[in-house]
Request: fold
Amino acid sequence: MDNIRRWVKGFTGSQDRQYEEALPLTTTDPQSIDDDWIPRPRENPTVRWLLFLLPFCIARPLGLTERRLPKTTSTTYLNGIRGLACWIVFNEHMTMDKYRDFIFKPYGAVKDGKKLEHFIQLPFVRALIAGKGMVCVFFVLSGFVLSYSSLRKVNDPGRPNKQDKTGNRDDLLTSVSSMTLRRAIRLFGPMLALAFITAFVTYYVPWGSVDHQAPNIFAHLYKFWLSAVTVMDPYHWGRLKPLPRHYGQAWTLGVEYRLSLVMFLMIATTATLTTVGRKTVIIFVAAWSVYCNRRWDVACAMGGMLLAELRFAPLSDDVSRLFNRSLRPSKWFTIVPAVFCVLFGILLCSWPEDMPAGAQPYRSLWELTPSSWRPDTGHGSPEPVGGWVWWWGTIGAFLMLWGLEQLPLLQKVLSVSFLKYLGETSYAYYLLQGLGHTHVGNPIYRVLQDKHGWSHNSAFTVGYIVGNIFNVLASDYFWRVIDESFVRLARYVVVEWLGVGKQPNNRLRNSPDSAVGYTPVPTAAPAANDDRSESDNTTVEENDIALKEGFDVNNGGEVRRRRDW
Reply:
C-alpha cells in the first residue's frame, strides 16, 4: 500500500519537488535506468524474467521494479506535452475514418442544408482530435530541445571558463558533432525496428490490415525497407508520396531529421552572436523560410529555438541594456498574456481541416490567412492536408509553448507522474499507434458492429479503449527493449567508436541517455539523466516526438531560469 500511496502522490503533483535547472527526461539515478526490474533481493532468474514482463505502469505501483520516473524539474512539463500530443494524434487516427462526415469540420458549419453541432466539434474541445496541430507542437519542441544545451552554454554568465573562448568553442563543437551523429540512430533505429515488426504482423496476423501482395515474406520485408528508406532520405524536401504503408505516421520522422540538420547549422552559425543578434537571425530565418517556400516546419523549429533563447536571455534583459536601467515586468504583466497565448494557441492548433471558414471563430480569422496557404494553391509542401492547418498550427504551437513557459502552475500540472510516464514512452507510443489502430481497435469495432449488432458509438468506444490500452502496454515494451537500446547504441557508436568528446578512462555505462521529445513526432525535451563521471565531456542524446533529441549536461552549475520577458 505504501508503494501505491507514493505513486498516487506523484499523480497529484506533491509540493516537495525540487525544480532543477536542467532538462532531464529520465532520472540521474542509475537504478532507474538499468535492467534491475525487481528489487535486488529477488535473485531467482525465472521470477526476475517473469516480472520483467510486467509493464512499468503496473510494476512500479506494486513495488516490483527499482526503476523510477525522472525527477521533476522546470522542464519536465515538456515531456508531459509530448505525451499528450502523441495521444491526440492517436485520437485523430482512430476517429478520422469512422466520423469523417463531421470530425474535421467546425461546430455550427452547414453542409447539405444540415447544421453540424457535435460536441467534439466545439472550439477547444476539438483540440482532443487535432493531430495535425500536434505535429506542429512536436516540431517546436524539437527546436527547443535541440538548441537548449548549446544556448545554455553561450548564455550562461556564470560559466567558470567564460574567458576561455577557445575552450568554449571546442566544447560547443563537440556538443554539436555528437548530437548530429547520434540523431539519425536515435530517430531511425526504432523506426526500422517498427518496419520489421509491422511487416511480420501485416503478413501473418489473419485480422487487421493484411497484406499478401508480395509473393513471400522476404519480398514483403524488402517492400517495407523501401518505405523506410523513403523516410530516411535527408535530401528530399518535398511531400512524401506515397506515405509508408501501414505506418504512415512515420512521415514526420523524415521531416524531423531534416529539421535537426537545419538546427545544428543554426546553432553553429549563431553561437558567437550577441543575444539580440541571435534572436534577429532566428526570426529572419523563420520568416524567410515561410515566405520563400512555405516551410512551416522550419518556422516551427526556429520558434522552438527562439523559446530556448528567451529562457536564458529574456526580452526584458535586452530592453534593460537598451535603456541602461533594470526592467522587471510585474507578475500579472506576464501571466495575463501567457494565459491568453495558451488558450489562443490551443484554438489555432485545432483549426478544422475541412470548411476552414465555415463557422466562428475561424471565419473571422480566415481573412488573415495568406492566399498561398489557402485551398487549391497547388503549392508543393511536406504535409498531407491543406496549408492553412499548418500556417495556424505553427503560430498556435509557438504561442501555446511560450505561454506555458511563463506559467509554473500549468507546468506542475503537466509534470504529474502519469504524463511523465506517457512522455517517456511517447516515441514508442507514436510509432506503434498504427498497429493499435489497424490490428486492435478497428477489428474489435467491426466485430462488435457487424457480427453482434452493437451501435456505431458503442462499438467505437470499446475498440478505442482496448486499442489505446494495447498501445500503452506495447509502447512500454518497445520503449524498454528497443528505444533505449538505440540510445545506448547511439552513444556507443559516437563516443566509444568514433571518439567524439571521449575523455581518457571514459567507460561506457550501461544506461540510456534518454530524454523527453520528439520529437516527432511527430515526434519532443532535453536530457540530463545519464550517470557519467564529472569528467565525461560528452553530449547526451535524448528522445524526440517524433522525437529524440540530444543534450549536453556536463555543466553542473545551475542555470538562470527566468520567466519574465
